[in-house]
Specification:
With 369 residues, the chain is of the alpha/beta class. The protein starts with a strand and ends with a strand. The strands form three sheets. A six-stranded mixed β-sheet has the order 2-4-1-5-6-7, with helices on both faces. It has 15 helices and twelve strands. Helices cover 41% and strands 20% of the residues. About 4% of the residues have low confidence. α8 links the parallel β6 and β7.
């Protein structure tokens, strides 16, 4: 597993086109009218990582398993979604389960209709974020009403949950996103867990996706620059791409052909690759690998995880019975031509329970059953 993301935005900003480009084989309907997407579109895409294929080649693996990105695309949100306008608000529950929000903002003109009449991505950003805050307030009211009796009875868990609900509610009622009231890392694990359990949309990290026309795919335009500036002010991620251009890239089956196509356009990486890098960075994720004749596999973990925790991603028994992790960096593994060469040169290390896993580590776990 890599991470999960939910695509939000107004209708006709390119959400479903982007979904189709990202998730090969999962074709969501695209048309020039509002609410073209009715039911949520769900899909998975392999996370691009050149290191994986190199490891598989050196290990002569029968199977290669990449990390995956889960994507959900819902109907476009509109002004008044929180009070029943449009369709998108019905499916926000799907986005609540995602780890990251991709907020697609239209930064292109043309004949495609716009629900607000004219292109203005900064206005669109405020409109959607207001609807997300109102949806969060509604969610908090429901959660609070279910706790009131337990709070009156002195239930400690309910009192704690009500405390974090009030923290979030205070921010939202003041017109601020819930993330502005998030408890600091110095808070107790119980408080942090209760906060995460609220599952608020505006508490999630967000990446603005500035969707430009194909002619602006390299340099952008005044709209995308405005979005870039707002992303900096909000401490959001930012990726500029053309969903229409990415659709063309996704139709090319051969990796070399895709690279040549991107290079001819003046791009070093596809929009998918840039979104993945941004997502991993925003969520503090890293990748470690296991490799051998049977399978080479990429595993995604939160940065700072200790070796037993990484083993637990593979199987809980491996974490419980952890003895050591035979570890070598990808760079050393590749330079030495594989595990045997790394072992001969003394580059394969035996790491214990306190070892902090690094991005690109190639690991073999020893454990008791």
């Amino acid at each position: 597993m890599g991470f999960s993301c939910g695509i939000v935005g107004l209708p006709n900003v390119g959400k479903s086109t982007l979904f189709n480009a990202l998730v090969s084989g999962e074709q969501a309907r695209v048309a020039n009218f509002a609410f073209c997407t009715i039911d949520p579109n769900l899909g998975r895409v392999a996370v691009p990582d050149a290191r994986l294929s190199r490891l598989a080649e050196m290990s002569r693996s029968e199977k290669v398993t990449p990390a995956t990105l889960e994507v959900v695309d819902i109907a476009g949100l509109v002004r008044g979604a929180s009070t029943g306008e449009g369709l998108g608000n019905r499916f926000l529950g799907q986005v609540r389960e995602a780890g990251l929000i991709l907020h697609v903002l239209r930064c292109f003109g043309g004949e495609v209709s716009h629900t607000e009449g004219e292109v203005d991505p900064l206005r669109d950003a405020e409109l959607v974020e207001t609807e997300l805050m109102l949806a969060d307030l509604e969610s908090l009211e429901r959660q609070a009403s279910g706790l009131e009796k337990r709070v009156r009875g002195g239930d400690e868990e309910a009192v704690l949950r009500m405390r974090v609900i009030d923290m979030a509610r205070g921010a939202l009622e003041a017109g601020r996103a819930a993330r502005t009231a998030a408890p600091g890392e110095s808070e107790s694990a119980e408080v942090l867990g209760a906060w995460r359990g609220l599952n608020l949309l505006t508490a999630k990290d967000c990446v603005y996706v500035a969707n430009v026309g194909e002619g602006d795919v390299v340099s952008g335009n005044e709209y995308s620059e405005g979005v870039r500036s707002r992303a900096g002010e909000c401490d959001f991620g930012f990726v500029m791409l053309s969903a229409a251009f990415e659709s063309e890239v996704s139709c090319l089956g051969d990796a070399d052909e895709r690279r040549e196509f991107l290079s001819d356009a003046g791009l070093e990486a596809s929009g998918l690759e840039r979104l993945v890098r941004e997502g991993y960075g925003r969520l503090g994720l890293i990748t470690f690998f296991t490799t051998g004749p049977k399978e080479t596999r990429a595993w995604t973990v939160v940065g700072g995880v200790l070796a037993p925790g990484a083993a637990g991603c593979i199987h809980s028994d491996m974490e419980r019975g952890f003895i050591r992790a035979e570890t070598v960096s990808f760079a050393d593994f590749a330079e030495c031509g594989g595990e045997a060469g790394a072992r001969e040169r003394g580059l394969l290390r035996h790491e214990g329970r306190d070892y902090v896993v690094c991005d690109g580590d190639v690991m073999n776990f020893r454990f008791n059953v």
